[in-house]
Design a protein that fits this description.
The structure is a homodimer.
Chain A lengths: L6 E6 L3 H13 L3 E7 L2 H11 L3 E4 L8 H11 L5 E5 L4 H9 L4 E4 L4 H12 L4 E2 L1 H11 L6 H11 L4 H8 L3 H14 L5 H11 L5
Parallel strand pairs in A: 1-2, 1-3, 3-4, 4-5, 5-6
Chain A binds a DNA duplex through helix 7 and helix 9.
Amino acid sequence: MPNIPTIRLLLVDDHPVLRAGLANVLNYEPGITVVAEADDGASAIALWRRLRPDVMLLDLSMAGMDGIETLERLRAEFPDARVLMLTSSEAPEDVRHALKAGAGGYVTKNVRRAELVAAIREVCAGARVIGESVARQLAAGEESGAVSRRELEVLGLVRQGFTNADIGRLLGISERTAKAHVGALLCKLQAADRAEAVARGFERGLLKV
Amino acid sequence: MPNIPTIRLLLVDDHPVLRAGLANVLNYEPGITVVAEADDGASAIALWRRLRPDVMLLDLSMAGMDGIETLERLRAEFPDARVLMLTSSEAPEDVRHALKAGAGGYVTKNVRRAELVAAIREVCAGARVIGESVARQLAAGEESGAVSRRELEVLGLVRQGFTNADIGRLLGISERTAKAHVGALLCKLQAADRAEAVARGFERGLLKV
DNA sequence: GGGTCTATTGGCCGATCGGACAATAGCGCG
DNA sequence: CGCGCTATTGTCCGATCGGCCAATAGACCC
């Protein structure tokens, strides 16, 4: 076994209890050191600048700047930064966004310790790791067509109770076009009506509470 | 200072990492001992039977039996059981359900360590504790009328894309009555149509992803 | 005992929806 | 340079929705 350098890890999560616990668990792991903790995106990036750790363990849901935004900004400044997302959400959209934003890996918080440690090491080595339960969800989502940006915009308005005519006015298009987008949504989300479309939107993570 | 007996605590959460960390943190706290951990409701209750701890720290969202159901079953068997809910959700409905099911307290996972420990002690002492951020959410929800059981049932069907006629058939009532329930939902949730009602349902925690 | 709330039902009607038909323009990919 | 996808718009139509009127019965609280 060659002498593997210790992995220096930056822990970012807005749950103090989880953070403390996690730091403790990880520091026990030989070859991993938690060099700092942050509870929001801004301080996470500031700490990265200062400490240049090997990897960031990043939560998706945080107050202020969320996980994705943090990830994007970090990668804009440090394109080689390795980041492992550690989150509660298995929503396909969240996973897709995270990976597109440059995440090196994505695991949910119910992973076992060994898996988490393995994932951290793999991400540091430059690999792409995705938790298996996450991967399953992702595969399920891929089956039916992807929702386009415009459709997502329309879904957001449907959610707010706007009629097709309203949506047309708000987006500067005809009612008929709005109708077409809603129709596409119903099809892609396999919904019978707009109410079910909204429900599916939440289920898939297209819409957030 | 009189000799206060050590609080024996049962930790229930389906996130192994959080559990390990939390156990560590709490065991550090003088006067608190984590006597066991469980990752689902059934084993939580079994452990309670065997160990008779002083308090349970219980997560809301778990695979299989969820937190509320676990709480209900536990309280049915041990009406005096002290349970502190520790969860990510601030949804008023979740809080209401938990308190109605006999929870002694309700705090979110982003509490600081000191607050958590204080909450544990208070619950053990028989008090009702509610995190302040939680309390705020709860107060906001109280403003508009409460949704009845029947209406909630209807909302669940609306979510699935059923028409009023469908709902009537499914519930063994007339279409007109289903319509009345939907109308009541629109009013209470301040929604313009069923799509918005579904959205509000998710926002309020009436509906789960 | 009276008031409040929920669940139930009826009819009427204009507004809205969702499906089916069909068509044009722009964009990225190979 | 076609091929496919997205965005756009149109018309017609039956189904559905949501608001309006009003009414009865049971449960629960003060």
